[in-house]
Amino acid sequence: MPRPAAAEDVFRAVADPTRRAALETLGRREVPVTELAEELGVGLPMLSRHLAVLRAAGLVAERRDGRRRWYRIQPEPLRELYDWAAIFSDFWPEKIDNLRSYLDRARTRTDGK
């Protein structure tokens, strides 16, 4: 099976909640791998697999300092994901307004009883 395109890798990489949490942490600061594993509450072998997926998608970079490995985010590949999600930006305000109207009607019915 051929390797997916880079953009598809990004979508797959961010589909996992542990990888999203890692990206959120790395978006704030560069972190040694042991500290990242502790913060995320996962073992080093599991985190290594997640980081391999993120590296393959170009979303993180690794820096070695002696025996320590530090990771930092490389946000550029997220741009395509952001651009794709922007297609749906008009969808949410309408849905939020509909939800607000529904809740207002439900509250009026409840308060009126």
UniProtKB/TrEMBL annotation:
It comes from the Bacteria. This is HTH arsR-type domain-containing protein. The keyword Transcription applies. Pfam families: HTH_5. One of its GO terms (molecular function) is DNA binding. SUPFAM superfamilies: Winged helix' DNA-binding domain. PROSITE patterns: HTH_ARSR_2. Keywords: DNA-binding, Transcription, Transcription regulation. InterPro entries: ArsR-like_HTH (IPR011991), HTH_ArsR_DNA-bd_dom (IPR001845), HTH_MetalResp_TranReg (IPR051081), WH-like_DNA-bd_sf (IPR036388), WH_DNA-bd_sf (IPR036390). Residues 1-93 form the HTH arsR-type domain.
